[in-house]
Amino acid sequence: MTQRRIPRWQDLRQFLQVKPIDLDGKRRRLSSVADVWDIRRIARRRTPAVPFDYVDGAAEGEVSLRRARQAWRDVEFHPAVLSPVGDLDVSQTIFDHRVAFPLGICPTGFVRMMNHEGEIAAGQAAADAGVPYNLSTMGTTSLEDLAGATPGGWNWFQLYLWKDRERSVALVERAKAAGYDTIVLTVDCPVAGARLRDVRNGMTIPPRLTPKTFLNGALRPAWVWNFLTTEPLRFASLDSWNGTVAEIANAMFDPTISIEDVEWLREQWDGNLVVKGIQTVTDARRVHDAGADAVWLSNHGGRQLDRAPIPLHLLPRVREALGDDATILIDTGIMNGADVVTAIAQGADMAMIGRAYLYGLMAAGREGVAKVLSVMRAEYTRTLQLLGVARTADLGPQHVRLLRRLSPIPDPRVDDAPNDEGRIPLARTR
Ligand SMILES: Cc1cc2nc3c(=O)[nH]c(=O)nc-3n(C[C@H](O)[C@H](O)[C@H](O)COP(=O)(O)O)c2cc1C
Q1: Please, what sign has the CA dihedral across residues 270, 276, 282, 285?
Q2: Structural domain includes residue 9
Q3: Among 42, 213, 222, 244, which is least packed by CB within 10 angstroms?
Q4: Which residues line ligand 1 (CB under 6 A)?
Q5: Residue 298 maps to which CATH number?
Q6: How many angstroms separate the CA atoms of 279 and 297, rounded?
């Protein structure tokens, strides 16, 4: 028989404590966030469909993005127990800079359309967190304004090669004069990808009001208010534009871009040169040989070629091909600090996030980006410790094995070069 009694006030009191309401809306919104997916849910609630889908969507059937995200989950961690992890060092060195942990923020266009605080808020959050921030050629804040607003930060500038090379040179010179030491040349956009959500939403820059967008915006009044009462969108490097994103991109992008352009840019720029959008081992070798200081494995977050290679599956083979001294960055589908652990263990020097940071920005501006970075840092640190690893530098392929799913079937017609396409080599200790 269960013995019962009448509850006493002292016992009840502890359950009846009412949490005071936090009057700071951003803090309140972020207080129960547990991971980046929670932040995405807040972002969706607060942002009209046109900008939200522009961020959240990918090209065509969005297969590249779904596969890349799945690949980060299809891994198995191999922890070393009884390994002391009290004395932690999660930092990483990239181009002689010390970064707080091996994560950086990807270049993304039109950032002030997602949230009025834009690139400056994101750059400041990155600077506070001790990680690099990338300004896009399609950014909505100038090179100089971003540099001025983030004095302690490390900003990189992402370049699309214009049809008019003189304009590209002028941008590189502006970046240099504003103190940028790293240029990222994006090479996976000979033409614009087909983002079907944007087509269906009728997305244009600047956004156009239709009955559908009006209704959608009416449910997100804070975004509309902020959009209408702050500086109109202007671009870091375009003078002005009206049209769809694909029209802007196709007018700018140069379908004739080739490896000679990488060599040409190498001659123009004496800072760090990163080439972004590498998707085969052969191309990783080519840009490395052309003088790039780093290769960035990426399929543009699945926004260009759909059904593209999964960057994570490419990583061990690129590390093998380029050797231990090469600098390798990776992105697409990274949503958790544990993904960053996987990236580093499999041979990357740094993992990069695009959508994850934009979800934070759309959810709560600078504080939202700061939240994403702190959640991902905590996930990174915890995973490292649970693996029995105390330092970023000690992570290796013995800690993370890739599970075989959706990796290419070996094909003798293209697999003649050992380890080139189609095989994930066995783990090796770096
Ligand atoms: C909204 C948005 C805009 C982007 N704009 C650019 C850009 O201007 N230049 C560029 O090199 N990459 C751009 N990207 C691609 C990112 O730099 C990065 O490769 C991609 O977002 C990584 O995948 P993730 O979003 O899953 O992290 C953009 C991505 C998004 C989501």
Answers
A1: positive
A2: no
A3: 222
A4: 54-55, 106-109, 136, 138, 158, 186, 276, 298, 300-301, 303, 331-334, 353-356, 358
A5: 3.20.20.70
A6: 6
